[in-house]
Predict the structure of Secreted protein.
Amino acid sequence: MGFMHFRKILPALIFATVLHSPLASAATLNADVENETCVASNTDSSPVVQFWEDLEADVRATRIAELEAQDPGISAAIASFVAKDPAAPTATEIQTRLDALNSGEGLAMLIPEDSTDPTLAVATEDFKTTYTYDEARGVIDGISEDPAAKVLSQLEDAATTRIAEIRVEKFSAQTAQYNDTQEALKADFQACVDAIDEARPIPLQYLILGGAGALAAVALGLRAWSNSRKNARHTG
């Protein structure tokens, strides 16, 4: 299989929505020129995924600090639950404390996804790892000059809880960093598409036209040479 590799670190394709995790991610992108696809791998180490993980960690820490001011000890209770401490309070017990504060937030919104139990897990989409040529072109065309503007608008529309408001605040302060990852993503998909284009065989009609052009050039050259010989004889 003919693979061409781009960049050691490649940002992921990420369609950030307010309710779902990224739909796709990759730390590397390979051009499968035989099948004309772009194949993503190492999804967990994507810089774009890292951007969102860091932002979400900051959002959670900020919100938990606010809740701690209202209910001293709730921060330690949540940390104990995340660490799976045998003596940790149950999810129900922590949720009861949150409800008493009228926070409007579920416990799953305040802890990392990998620490949730099946009853708290938030539904997410599977990562997409293979893009057809047309899909790759769609990724390129879909990244605007200011992709953060659309994401910020989505986050603002969904800011119905305090933690969602904090997410808006944190993201709005990092739009330049987000746009940088998207520009790098666009460049990598463009490199993949270019590799596929370059690997495609030259269409037969172009080869025929090219051959005809070469023959015409030779014919013109011979004619010019012949004419120059005739002129030389007439002047001799």
Notes: The CA atoms of residues 2 and 190 lie 18 Å apart. The longest helix spans residues 204-235. Residues 3-199 form one domain. The longest strand covers residues 28-32.
